[in-house]
Structure formats: C-alpha cells, structure tokens
Design goal:
The complex is a heterotrimer of chains A (844), B (228) and C (283). With 844 residues, chain A is α/β, with parallel strands linked by helices. Chain A has 28 helices and 32 strands. Chain A folds into 5 domains: 94 residues, N-terminal domain of TfIIb, CATH 2.20.25; 213 residues, Rossmann fold (3-Layer(aba) Sandwich), CATH 3.40.50; 180 residues, Dimethylsulfoxide Reductase, domain 2, CATH 3.40.228; 87 residues, no CATH class; 151 residues, Barwin-like endoglucanases (Beta Barrel), CATH 2.40.40.20. In chain A, strand 2 and strand 3 form a beta hairpin. The relative contact order of chain A is 0.15. Chain B has a single domain, classed as TorD-like, CATH 1.10.3480. Chain B is built from 10 helices and 1 strand; from the N terminus they run αααααααβααα. The longest helix of chain B has 33 residues. Chain B is globular. By secondary structure, chain C is of the alpha+beta class. In chain C, 25% of the residues lie in helices and 20% in strands. Chain C contains 11 helices and 11 strands. In chain C, strands 10-1-11 form a 3-stranded mixed β-sheet. A two-stranded antiparallel sheet of chain C has the order 2-3. Chain C has a two-stranded antiparallel sheet with strand order 4-5. The N terminus of chain C is likely disordered. The chains are: A alpha/beta (844), B mainly alpha (228), C alpha+beta (283). Chains in contact: A-B, A-C, B-C. At the A-C interface, strand 2, strand 3, strand 4, helix 2 and helix 7 of A face helix 1, helix 2, helix 4, strand 3 and helix 8 of C.
C-alpha cells in the first residue's frame, strides 16, 4: 500500500471530499461557530501567560453537610476548591472529601453519554444513544404507565436529593406525574434517630450547640470524622475542647477520631448504649439533679395532667431497675464510670447530649434515641443555648410545579413488610428489593435510581444483584449517574448526570448557629461530554409527556426561588446569590426555646380548630383532612389519620404553647417521654431496655460485626476519587488484641467472616482501638465497579488515560461488609439494624 | 510570489479545507445514511484507491441498514466504549515533556481552546464535547484554510500569511503531536476496514500537511501589521 | 506557573472577589510590621496537635494546590493507636517539610548540603523596606527568610536531597522531568506555598484546616500568631520536645504543640516515620 499523499492525490481527494461535504446538515452540526477573524491587535496565544483564575462561589455535595465553598477556574478547568469564608456554617472550611471533589469532575471513568444496554442485563455490553433517543424511549414508557392509570409502577429511588433538587424532581416532576412510589436511603443512615426524635420532640433534625456548651456526652457519633453536618460541627467542637475546656465523653465501640479527641473514650458493647443511658437517667433522677422546670413540658405518664412531682415519681419508678451495676453487666461500661459521667452531666450547665448511628442502627434503635432524648431532657438541655437544639435551616419559597397535580399513587414497598415496622417515618428502603421480589405489594415496571446504589448500599448484596438483574421482576431499569458503579452495571438505560460541580441548586442545610443560612450551588464549568443535569432533564421529560413544570431548567428554578424568597430578594436576589453564594440575616437572633412561645388566642378560634381533651392538643381537623368535625372529635387527635398535620398548639396548665410540634406522627405538643403511640403498638411507652434478640443467642466464639466511616471517604460515592483512595484503599477487620489472641489471629492474617447470610474473606488488623468481642470493618470500599481507582476495573465509557494511573500505588480495594449483613429493620423505625450482625471469624 | 503560486495556494487551501471537513465529519458521530451514500460515490472511492486505500468497497456492498448498524457499533466501540477504546481527544495522546499529558481536559485542551478562540472562532452552544476533540481540531483547520483561500482570492497576502502561520503552528504543535499516534491505535483496534482506512487516510494527510508546511510554510512570513 | 497562581489569586482578592470574600483567606502581616524592621521574615510553621482531628483536609488541599502525583505527598498525617485497651489513645501527627535552619555551625540543612547543584547563581532577597540580602541559588537552596526551595531548572534528578532528608519530606515527582537531565525526574516537596505567602496569603493547608490546628507566620514579628504561640508554649526554647528528630540536629522551623506527648509516643510505637522513609498518608 502506498498511503503517501502527493499534491495530485490531494487535489483529487479534495474534490471528492467537497462532494461528500455538500451533503449538508445530514453530516452533523459543527462544533465551532463563527468565522476566522483576527481581532484587533491579534491576541497572542500562550498558555503560559495571562492565565486568569475565575473565582466562583458554590456549594459542596460530597456529603449531606453540603458546605458552602468557592472554586477557582482557570481556562475552563476547575483547579481548586476551598471553603466559603462568608458562610456562618462552614466559616471558610471544607474537608478532605470536599477538596477532592475535583476528582469527581475529572474522573477518567466518568459516564459522558446516554448508554443503552445491548446484551443481557448486567452483561456489560452498551451502545451509545442520543439524548433524543433516550428520552423518546423513556417518555413513551412513562407516559404509557400514566395513561393506563398506573403511574405508581414507576418507582424513583434516590440516595442524595435535597433542597431544590428534591423540590424539582420529587415535588414538581414526580408529583405532576403522579407516582409516590419514591424511595430514599434514610434507613441505611439514621432513620431510627429521626423516628426517635419525632416521637419525642416532633421534628427530626437536631443541632448541637457546641459554640455555647460546656460538656458533651456522645453516644455513637463520629462527628469529628464523618457526620451529617460535619465541618460546621467538628470545627466548633474541637475549638470548644481546646479553647474553652469543653469536656467530651464518647461512648463508642471503636476508638474513632472523635473518641480520640475526647476527654475520655468509653468503650461500649454494640447495641447496649441504651442500658448506659437509662442508668445515667436513674443516677440523675435519684440524686435529684434533674431540671424540675422543664418537666412542665414533659409528658411522663399516661395522664398528662399529672403534677411535676408525680411525673418525677413515675419516671423514678420506671427507671428503678436500671442501675449502673445492671448496665455494666450489659454494656461493659463500669458502673462507677456511668455514675461519675451522669453526675458531671447533671451538674454542668449547659451540656449537650449527642447521638448517631453507633447508638441507633440496632434493633429498637429508635428507643435508644428516645432514651438519649430523655437524658437531655431531664438535665434541661433541650432547645437551649449550649444544648441539643431543634435544627434550623433556610426557608426558601419556590415554584411548586403544576397546580393540577393528580392524586399520586404508590406501591406499598418503601415502608417494609406489612406489620413489621411500627413507625417507618423515613421508610425502610433497604428492603425495597426484597419486597419487589416478594411481589405481594406489587412491582414497579420502571425502576429508576438517582445518586444511589441499591446493590452496594444495602445488606445482602448478592440478593440485591440477583433481584435487580432479573428482568422478570423489574422489566425496565434506569440509572441517572455520572459513574459506572455496581448498580449502573445492572441498568437498561444510563442517563449521564454531571457531577455536582456542574449543576444548580439552592440549599438549606441546618445551621450550627441556630440562624438560617441561604446558599446556592452553581456550576463551575459546563457539564462535560453530553452529561445533563437530571433536574433539567425532568423539565424536558414533562414536556414530552404533555405537561409543564412551570420552569425549564434548574437554573431558572433557582432564579425564580431567589426572587420569590423575600429576604433573598431584598439582599439582591439571584444576581447577589450568584456573586456571593451565601446569605444570612445579620440581625437574626439564634432560635432557642421555640416550644415556649404561646399561641395567639385568635389562632385557636380559626375555622376547624378543635380541642382534644385527652392530649391537650388544639388541632385543625380541616387541615388534617379529617372526615368531619364530629368524626374528628369522636376518633380523637391521636387516632385520626394525619391529625398532626392540623396541629396548632399544646395546652399546659391553662396556657397554650407552640410546644414540641409534631412532624410525622400524631404525638402531642409535649416532650413525650411517655408515648401513647409506642404503647398502642405494644412497644415500651417510656424508653426501656430490650436486648438485641440475635445477641441473646450468641455462642461463646461469636463476634459482632460493626461498620464505620473514615474521614476521607463518603459512604459509597468516593472510591473513584484518586486522592482519597490513595489515602484509604483497604479496610481490614479491626479486632481487639484479646479477642484476636483467643482466635489465634494476627495482624495481616487472612480471615473468613461468616454470618447467617454468607461469608467474606478479608484481612485482620489487631488493635487496642476496638472493644473485645467485635470485628469492625469500615464501609466505603470493596467496590467491584466504579472505575479504575475504586476497583481496578475500567468503566465501559472511560477516557483513555490519566497520567496518575501509572503511578497508582495500590492494588487492594478492600472488602465490602454488606455481603454478609442481613437487611433486618428496627421494628420501631425501619432503620436497617446493620450493627447487630453476629459472625464467626476464623483464619482463612 | 507570482500569480500561479497564488492560484496554486488558493486551490490547495480549498482542497485542504474540504479534506479537513471530510475528516471532521468522519469522526464527529456515527455515519449517517446520507453520508454513506456520498462515501459510496466512485469518485471518492477512486481518490482513496489512488493513495492505496483499498478494501472498503467490499464492505460497502452490504445492505445499507446492516452496514449503518455495523458502522455505528464500530464507531461506539472504537471511540466511546465499551471496553478498551481510543479516546479522540488530543490531551489524552499528546505527550508533553512536563509530564502533563494523558488526561481529559488537560493542558493541551486549554491550549487548543485558547488558540481557537484567539482566531475569532468559538464553540457553538450545541457542542457538548471537549474542546480538543478531533472533530474540533479538524473543523478549526477547515475554517482556517477556508479563510486562507478567501484571502488569496482577495489578493490579501498578509491575511493569507496570517492564516498559514496559525495553520503551521497548529499542525506543528498539535496535530502532528498526536494524530499519528491516535491513528495508529485506531488502525490496531478497528475491526471493520472503514475506520481503518479513514485512520490511514488521516495519518497520511496530516503527515502530508506537516511536510507541506515545512516545504512551503516559510515562503510566507507572517507580518503582524498585516493581520487586520 | 506558580508565580501566575499567586498573581491571579491577588487579582481575586483585589477585584470582584474582594467584595464577595472579605477575609477570603487569612491575610498575613507582610506590610508595615516587616517594613519597619528591614529584615527578612523568619517563617515558622506550628501544628497544634490538640486541635488536629486527623481529617486529612491538609493532605488533599496540598494535593490540589500542586497537583501532586499519586505516590508522593508534600503534606501527610500519621496516626497511631498506642496504649492498651481500654486505656488506649489514638494520636495524629501531621507531617511536612521542616524547612530546617541547619545545624548551628554552618546553618545549612542536609538537603541543601547534599545538592550537587548548590551553590549556583547569586541572588538577592529584597525585604519589605527594600533592603537587599544576598544568597546563592541552586537546585535546592535556602532563602534568607528560611524557606528551603527547589528550582527544577537546575535539578539533575540525582535524588541526593531525598536521601539526605531525615524526615522523608522529599519525593520524586514522577510527572516532572528534571531540568538538567531529561531521563530523570525532578522532586516535589512542601515550599510553604511560597507563591501564596509572597502575596500575603496563608499556605493552602493552613487555609483549609477545619480544626485550625495549623499556623504559619513570622517569628520576627512579635504580633504574629506564631510568635504568640511560641511565647506561650516556649516552642523554640524547648525545641528538643517540640520538633521532630531533634537528634538529627537539623533545627526544624516546624514546631508541634504536643500536650499528649504524641511525638515521643508515636516514635516509640513505630519506627516508620522516624528516618528517611518518604512521608506517606495511608490510613
């Protein structure tokens, strides 16, 4: 073959090419626009000079904390992320995961085009399709279900979707479409904590006022390392410890970074925090060190009208058997330690009692949260400066989507199996796939998941894979994703989402100062490739199905919200927010003691407001959509469905207070230590001790498997970040030296960890930093997809190279513990009781 | 420079522009039915065969629907995935001596974008790809050579020289630094003769361009004041 | 390249960014305080271990600031569990280049001493009031303000400075070709974000640190935070307890506030970070 071109060839080829080009538009549209024209003076090209970095304020989305941040863009490339100094939440700080966000944007294994599966589901064969083809297909399928009167057969399952994303996708789009078969991820996170709080003080979020506290007692929160409001909270706590001498006691199975910085790490056996808390309550009550004034707002007995003394007596009686010595036997925490910390807590004002997954991701975890609420309440540390406060976040106004939304329908598959769970107020979505397999409550025809990985995040991984793979169980699977993770591999259609550094949002995360902060997320760069923000995509999907959301893009939605929210508008609206990123009212006062506010008499006289004698609740039967006034009165507040939606105020000793307003269940406006709702379901009315059933049956050689998070990884979405995975790419099982000796295991040994579900083989790390009788394996790792940094496996749509690939120093990717953890729920809340797993550990 | 030279340059620029246009089209997206029709034209196939590129005629005999599907699958497999594929972006292949190469939206991407933008061209709003996609680079050359042809016709030697200077710079500093490597990989990976032939054509053409620039590029010096 | 970063950073501070970002970064006192004295600053870095929560924001901020290739770290955090359960402790120790003064006799740190490309050209350091201080450049050299810097143009990639550093603070940069030998790599090490401090902006790791455990400033300026901390904790005076490997006699300018005795406990628990091993951040 000659294959060398001379001029003659060239001319001939040129003429032939001209003919081909004459085909016109059919050959695709040009990438470039305009004509060659040298501008005045001719700008000289040089990458080495004149590089200008543009600063853009935005917000993180690595974890739910969603810190405000700023980014620097140079020549269209995002080069660095820093904290937003003007944010009262983050005060100019972000964490390692936030700073490594750039790795999410430029992950060479990112998905940049809509892809359709061509082989069998999960086989890994894909074809690139156009957005038009993808949306034509999807809209037709969705429209068919809707036209047939079965919009609920479209299930939408999200992991992270907050603030404006939730309003656009969930409220506007899914609302207008008509499905309420919507799953979230809360049961794998802190559902039990939320339910526990809803049963006691109504709302779910709490904020810990570290700026003003003198002492912190911590049950199972790793807030200095990984937390729901990580950076705002951690910097305040460590500063309190060093600058103001704040004492911090951490009850945890593992010597976490939080435990490490504590005045004292108090090791506790998994699932036994409640015994310690109950004993501490007993010590405080018996010593008479309770806050008598707060008892006015406490409901501690069936009869709400009992005197404070009677309430105190009832509580003492209830706590009588929960002695520190009893608790020591259960928890392994010395009785003397329980007593001394309890007394110090009662005498130190203000103090903050905090909790998280370590305490609540267990059987009856919600009751542990109620017990912790009790400890905070009897010491007077509720909603006060320096205490455990009710979360305050920005209250945006926003477009609500079409007015004529249909009455949404739902498949009953998001709250666990019928009768299993008393109050699944945040769902039991780790059981969704099981319920689909079961089929009795119906099955979705289209299962779409967004910022979520149902295969990897839940327990019983193999079953998840088998179900999601089975086309007879779920006919059509769609994943909105920027990365080829374990679940994307089982999709029929992948819609390429951008990274969060390329999209719009307004944000509202809880403020650590009790003053709301308004902030936005704006793109640093145009979405790479053909990736499109799903919030923009739903606007188009709606149009294609013949309805309009009232806005055409996320940007427009954010803009409209800025103009609709009076305070933000007054500050300068959308333009102000784009330039500054954050806003808070400089004259605002922190919100404390909100429950003490009295309700105006005229509010009690409004149409539909009735008084419920049994609970002392004023409520509006019309707002609660009760059948009639008579029916509402007859059934009463507690037993009328959704009565809490009409809550107005709580009568206490002749006055009506705003009280502890209910949010998801029909509790009264009291701080309920005695819960009629619990009693109605044959659960302990006052927080009580119930051992974890599987722990009762443990053999002498059995261990409990717990998991945890490290500071440099997000739950399941960061192993693709090279800088983070470089630091943490293995997750050996932590075993206490005493336990290891008994089992004949040394650091570095290959071990088999076996549960009722299955077996994994991993590596042991013998340590003094975990309680005996436990094996603790961090989450985050053990990916078998998610690109080369996470698993060593190239994604099917990957970019060719990254200069760092050849420098990658690791070839271990960890072992995922979820393979062997049962998807059991807490029967109170639906929380995945992930920390209860009983295992056998042997040398492999 | 005499009139013949000018005419010659003008025609050369036109033909080069068309070839760049064709190549931009080939890599832009999967082959469409219309384009396939034009490619099957004996004139085009003849021009290919003149430079020794044979073997695609047989392929083109297949039924159109099947052929389009096969070519689409081949396109996706070669340039998009699944599995091992050859990224059609300069920054992935252009080896720079400071080690800053091999990543998407790398230093080369930035250079290409800036160079293109200094000439008054911009990325169209519809364009969703990265700024250093092979199609962008070929379109850029298509536009430059088009402008050069126009300059010759207008007897504006300065403008023509300015165009040629940018062309030369772009070929020297970009195209020749990565297109041959890229084409070699495509030739290795291709399963159907079509993209193998196109890659061979691309490589030969860019090599021709480099030689052409070395041979004649110095004949016209850029005179800065001449650039409007 | 680094020079540009800081210029544009200053533009950010001066221009549109300034209004939006009052106090965007902690500005250091480079103005009057230094001008009044007419001497070079004496930069010091202090890590307050009481405040370090082991989060690795510093490690990542540094990676991003310099696009540090995989396998190399300019900043890192070490952690170690010591003691016996239940009285165990977990300790954190951030690591970076100590920007050593060098021993008392010759005031030349070992990395500079071993560099075959030092001393080279004559250079001048201009103080804030215009006074010029002469010094010698090199592939690795010490500036009059105490910074130990690296100039790739002069580097032969011999790696002697890496071997010479008892703290393992230097690494080959496998994506950087050394200036004088294209078959070798240049190095990467902490330069106290020289491009930022030149413009009065704190180093990147200091800026990000959520625990506010990192301090950078001028010991010659009595009003600086580092001077105050030095006074409070006697850091310079007690340098045998506040710096790493005092026995190496390198005289670090990076100090630790160490109320838990982490330096000695970690040294006793593990030899890994003792000598020469390149600093590495792996949990």
């Amino acid at each position: 073959m000659k294959q060398e071109i001379n001029r003659r060839d060239l001319f001939k080829l040129g003429i032939a090419s001209a003919a081909v080009l004459a085909t016109g538009k059919a050959i695709g549209s040009s990438a470039l626009a305009g004509t060659v024209d040298f501008v005045e003076g001719g700008k000289d090209f040089s990458p080495e000079t004149g590089a200008e970095r543009q600063m853009i304020p935005s917000a993180c989305w690595s974890c739910v904390t969603r810190d405000s941040m700023i980014g620097f863009v140079e020549d269209g490339r995002l080069v660095k992320l820093e904290g937003q100094p003007n944010s009262i939440r983050g005060k100019g700080k972000i964490c390692a995961k936030g700073a490594a966000g750039i790795n999410q944007l430029y992950d060479p294994d990112r998905i940049l085009y809509p892809m359709k599966r061509v082989g069998k589901r999960g086989e890994g064969k894909w074809k690139r399709i156009s957005w038009d083809a993808a949306l034509t297909d999807l809209a037709a399928r969705l429209k068919k279900l809707r036209d047939e009167g079965h919009p609920e057969k479209f299930m939408f399952h999200y992991g992270r979707m907050k603030a404006s994303s939730s309003k656009i996708i969930k409220s506007a789009f899914l609302g207008a479409y008509g499905t309420k078969t919507i799953g979230n991820h809360t049961s794998i996170c802190e559902g039990a904590k939320w339910t526990g709080q809803e049963l006691t003080w109504g709302k779910h979020y709490d904020n810990w006022d570290f700026d003003n506290t003198k002492m912190v007692v911590n049950f199972g929160s790793n807030c200095l390392e990984a937390h729901t409001n990580s950076i705002p909270v951690s910097q305040r706590l460590i500063s309190g410890i060093v600058d103001r001498g704040v004492k911090l006691y951490t009850f945890d199975v593992r010597l976490s970074n939080t435990a490490a910085k504590s005045t004292e790490w108090v090791p506790v056996k998994p699932g036994t925090d409640r015994a310690v808390v109950l004993a501490m309550c007993k010590v405080i009550m018996d010593a008479g060190l309770y806050d008598k004034d707060f008892f006015k707002f406490i409901k501690a007995t069936k009869n709400r009208k009992e005197s404070t003394d009677a309430k105190i007596a009832a509580l003492k009686k209830h706590l009588d058997t929960f002695t520190p010595e009893w608790a020591e036997k259960i928890s392994g925490v010395p009785a003397a330690k329980i007593k001394s910390i309890a007394l110090e807590l009662a005498k130190t004002k203000p103090a903050c009692v905090i909790s998280y997954r370590g305490a609540v991701a267990h059987h009856h975890g919600a009751d542990t949260e109620r017990a912790i609420q009790m400890l905070a309440a009897i010491t007077g540390n509720i909603d006060n400066p320096g205490g455990r406060c009710r979360g305050v976040g920005a209250k945006w106004k926003y477009p609500k989507g079409p007015k004529d939304k249909p009455k949404a329908k739902a498949l009953k598959i998001t709250n666990g199996f019928k009768g299993d769970i008393a109050y699944p107020t945040h769902g039991a979505n780790h059981q969704v796939l099981k319920m689909i397999k079961d089929g009795k409550a119906g099955r979705p025809e289209i299962y779409m998941w967004y910022c979520y990985t149902p295969v990897y995040s839940h327990g019983e991984t193999q079953e998840n894979i088998d179900i999601l793979k089975d086309e007879s169980l779920i006919p059509f699977t769609v994943n909105v994703n920027a990365y080829y993770d374990e679940s994307a591999a089982l999709a029929d259609l992948i819609l390429p989402n951008p990274s969060y550094l390329e999209w719009w949002d307004w944000e509202d995360m809880v403020s650590p100062t009790q003053i709301p902060e308004y902030y936005i997320r704006q793109p640093f760069v145009k979405p790479l490739g053909e990736s499109r923000d799903f919030k923009d995509v739903v606007c188009e999907l709606a149009q294609r199905m013949g309805f309009s959301l009232g806005f055409n893009s996320a940007e427009e939605f954010v803009k409209m919200s800025c103009e609709m929210t009076p305070d933000v508008k007054a500050a300068g609206g959308f333009e102000y927010m784009k330039k500054h990123g954050v806003w808070h009212d400089p004259n605002a006062k922190p919100k404390y003691y909100m429950y003490k506010k009295e309700v105006k008499t005229e509010d009690l006289k409004k149409d539909g407001v009735i008084f419920d004698e049994a609970t002392g609740v004023y409520w509006n039967w019309k707002k609660a959509h009760a059948e009639s006034e008579a029916a509402a009165k007859e059934k009463g507040y507690t037993k009328t469905k959704n009565a809490y939606k009409g809550y107005v105020g709580q009568e206490i000793e002749g006055k009506v207070y705003a009280g502890f307003k209910p949010d998801k269940v029909n509790k009264s406006g009291y701080f309920e230590l005695y819960s009629e709702l619990m009693e109605m379901k044959n659960l302990p009315a006052i927080p009580s001790f119930t051992p974890v059933p599987v722990h009762e049956k443990m053999g002498p050689d059995d261990l409990i498997l717990t998991s945890y998070k490290v500071s440099v990884h997000i739950h399941s979405r960061s192993a693709n970040c090279k800088w983070l995975t470089e630091i943490c790419h293995d997750n050996p099982g932590l075993i206490n030296s005493k336990t290891a000796k008994r089992l004949g295991i040394k650091t570095g040994d290959k071990i088999k960890v076996t549960s009722e579900i299955g077996e994994i083989t991993t590596t042991a790390k013998v340590t003094e930093g975990v309680v005996p009788g436990v094996i603790s394996i961090s989450h985050h790792l053990g990916h078998w997809q998610y690109g080369r940094y996470a698993s060593g496996k190239k994604s099917p749509f990957a970019g060719d190279n990254d200069p760092d690939f050849k420098l990658k120093t690791w070839n271990t990717y960890g072992v995922h513990p979820n393979w062997i953890i049962a998807n059991k729920p807490d029967p109170i809340s639906g929380q995945w009781a992930m920390l209860d797993t009983v295992v056998k550990v042997t040398k492999a | 420079m005499n009139k013949t030279d000018k005419h010659d340059y003008s025609a050369l620029a036109r033909h080069r522009s068309n070839i760049y246009g064709l190549l931009a089209t080939v890599y832009r997206q999967e082959i469409t039915s219309n384009l396939l029709y034009q490619i099957k034209d004996p004139q085009f196939l003849g021009a290919l065969s003149d430079i020794g590129l044979e073997g695609i005629d047989d392929l083109l005999q297949n039924p159109e629907n099947e052929l389009l599907e096969d070519l689409a699958v081949e396109y996706a497999r070669l340039f998009l995935g699944p599995g091992k594929h050859v990224s059609p972006h300069e920054s992935v292949h252009h080896q720079r001596n400071n080690g800053q190469w091999g990543k998407l939206w790398g230093a080369s991407t930035v250079e290409v974008k800036k160079l293109i933008e200094t000439t008054g061209l911009g990325y169209s709003d519809d364009f969703k790809g990265l700024p250093d996609h092979i199609t962008v680079e070929f379109e850029f050359m298509q536009q430059l050579t088009l402008r050069e042809e126009q300059a010759w016709k207008e007897e504006d030697a300065d403008k023509a020289a300015a165009c040629r200077n940018v062309e030369k710079k772009f070929i020297e500093e970009h195209l020749i630094r990565w297109i041959p490597t890229f084409c070699k990989k495509v030739i290795q990976e291709a399963e159907l003769p079509f993209y193998r032939a196109m890659a061979a054509l691309t490589r030969s053409f860019i090599e021709f361009e480099m030689e052409e620039m070395n041979r004649n590029g110095n004949g016209v010096e850029l005179r800065r004041e001449g650039a409007r | 390249m680094q020079e540009q970063l800081s210029i544009s950073r200053r533009q950010v501070l001066k221009g549109a960014g300034a209004a939006a970002l009052t106090g965007a970064v902690t500005l250091m006192p480079t103005g009057k305080a230094i001008a009044a004295r007419g001497e070079a600053p004496r930069w010091a870095f202090i890590v307050d271990l009481r405040r370090c929560i082991g989060c690795r924001a510093c490690t990542i901020a540094c990676k991003a600031e310099f696009n540090v290739p995989l396998g190399a770290f300019r900043a890192a955090v070490y952690e170690e569990v010591t003691g016996t359960f239940p009285n165990s402790e977990k300790l954190f120790l951030p690591r970076l280049c100590n920007h050593c003064e060098g021993n008392k006799d010759d005031k030349v740190p070992p990395c500079v001493k071993e560099c075959p490309e030092y001393p080279k050209d004559r250079r001048e350091f201009v103080t804030a009031d215009g006074k010029k201080i002469r010094y010698r450049g090199g592939a690795t050299y010490k500036r009059p303000d105490g910074l130990i810097l690296f100039d790739n143009k002069l580097c032969t990639g011999c790696g002697k400075c890496i071997e010479a550093c008892p703290y393992g603070a230097r690494n080959f940069n496998k994506l950087l070709i050394s200036g004088k030998d294209s078959t070798k790599n240049g190095i990467t090490k902490c330069n106290f974000c020289e491009h930022r401090i030149a413009k009065g902006v704190t180093p990147s790791c200091v800026n990000i640190c959520p625990g506010r455990a990192r301090f950078f400033g001028d010991l010659n300026d009595p009003a600086s935070e580092v001077s105050k901390l030095n006074k409070q904790f006697g850091l310079v005076e007690k340098r045998n307890e506040t710096t790493l490997l005092p026995g190496e006699n390198t005289v670090p300018t990076c100090f630790y506030i160490d109320s838990q005795g982490a330096l000695s406990k970690m040294a006793a628990a593990k030899q890994k970070f003792e000598k020469n091993d390149a600093i590495l951040d792996v949990i």
